[in-house]
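Assess this one:

_____
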Amino acid sequence: MDQLRTLRRQVHLSREELSARAGISSASIKAYETGVRHPSREALIGLLDALDADAFARQQVLSGAGYAPDFASPADRLEDEWFTLRSAAEAIADLPHPACITTELFEVVAANAVIQRVWEVDLHRELQGPFQRGFLSMLTTPGFARRLRNWSEALSVAVSVVKGHYGGDAALDPAQHPYLAAAVQFLMNGSPEYVQKFLELWNTVPGRAYRVRLTYPVVWGNSEVGELRFVSVTGPANNPPSIWFNDWIPLDGRTAEAVHQLRIVEDGRRPYYDRTWPRIPPPGA
């Protein structure tokens, strides 16, 4: 089978090395590759597993040998396909676009240097504490709120997610959700102008049960590079989804170039992650 030999050579394995991995003799592998013998489906699957063949290659090889494809993938053999906060933080650290990790309450628990430059903060020195780093409270602080040019549009998504996930107005009941209620109470200490706008959104935006992927628009004003336009794409980092990837993808060429310039700035900012997460719930939680 030429396909089997091609796969073996692509990963730079000798027949002897593949034999040791698959538990099939090198003589049998040679016979399969040269067409002297026809492998059983079980033997072929064992060789494909040992070669870490992807789903497309597996389908080609199995179908070519006259067997039904198994639609398996190397990912099926991962012990855990999900992330810890630390591994999620490492995954976003060197991305070329702004990215952060948030909790289900939109608290920022990890961020790469690019998004910190977009926000014009250094999370190692500023916004200490989970409530301070929560999007909801950050965006009732004038220094942040004025930079988010589509404030109501973007915050409506956050409000609808929180209300949908926590049962509407019950989200603010300290008896049911003490941590969330405490976070919202902290938010109320923000700028009265933006607190009032937040309350108006809370009273008018319906809760929505989102699936594990959602997007929200961001129009951000940066004092160094001007207005930036992104779509933020979010998806779960762990299971159950309590931390989420947020990738801010530039929507136009000007934003992409500005982000590149921010990325190469040498200003001492470095990737951040919150070593105290997950936190112990407040008493009575």
Observations:
- The chain has a mean pLDDT of 90.
- The longest helix spans residues 151-166.
